[in-house]
Amino acid sequence: MESHAEAGAEQLRLGARGVRAACAAMEREIAAGTTPGAVLGVMHEGKQWFYSAGYANPKPKQGQPVPASKDTLYDCASLTKVVVTLPLILQLIDEGVLTLSTKVSDILPLFGTAGKEELTVGQLLTHTSGLQADMNLHSQGWDREQMWDAVLTAPLVTMPDTEVIYSDLGYLALGRIIEKSLGMPLDQAVKGRVLDPLGMRHATLTPAPEQASRYAATEYEDTIQDHLCGIVHDEKARALGGVCGHAGLFATAGDLLQYARMWLAHGAIPATVSPDARGGESRILSRAAAVASTRTHTGHIDGTNRGLGWVLKGDKMDASGDWMGPGCYGHTGFTGTSMWIDPELDLAVVLLTNRVYGGRSSSVAQLRAQVHNALTGAVAW
Questions:
Q1: DSSP tag of 142
Q2: Mean per-residue pLDDT, 234-246
Q3: Dist. CA 342–CA 340, nearest whole Å
Q4: Of 282, 280, 310, which is closest to residue 295 (Cα–Cα)?
């Protein structure tokens, strides 16, 4: 670990002590049983480096234990919100199809019930809609149409714009808005508009079952008498077929660093993917959309700091640690994934774990903070 960490520090132009500390924190959590394995992807000043430890799947039904590696595909859970749904909605705003003030009911008429007639796309993006956080869809005996009816007709639990309620339902609705606006399924839209242009060649919303060995295993599932592997962990997404706006993305650390690179370039496709990245047309997002997404939109609500999709410094869901600066932003996923970006330091950190492998009680919150602190402290000021 030490020689590899030191090589990474040299490659990234980071202090070796901080890089070693980040790797050691991962090793400690794996030894403690918090997660069977983990992959760290770091980008600093455009250079990438990866560190993996432990197992992606410690006990597959067939074959030998599968080590975690930089090529392991992890269930990204709610990173789907900012990697899939957010950029597609922002593109539709860039293209003049939507605005932040577009009423959701104008696109999805069924949504315009139970006091939701005036709710906007912007309120769904910032989790200020007043919608409930979650809903049990998978155990009601409903078919797919009934599940979508339940999502879209759900009543408000609080007045809009009075508090932040982190809501999967809002992003499920945003996924439907994308499909309705583009006339294609969400997985096709994100592949053609985000994943392929950015060179995120492993990332997918439709994992191939025959390639299960490439995926990190998550929680044990009674119905299949095995750990989920290449099958989405989130029950709502699974019940709805896996292609959803709130969860369902599988990706490697390298895929997610490519996405982070685009944000550090204010929406431009990196020159490493497209030689014309600075030419004006080779963009995923306008610079205006990228900048607007990473500034606060919830300053009127005490104790919150949310951008469009992104969690900002000081929000109650902020996982940046202690040393990242006031302009940092990121997001986490329930399965144990996270991506955090500090533009001032030209630093992006992707940490992928399958902390739900042994159940839902394990937490990687401290691990995220330790890794982010160590790597931020390793930047030469």
A1: -
A2: 97
A3: 7
A4: 310
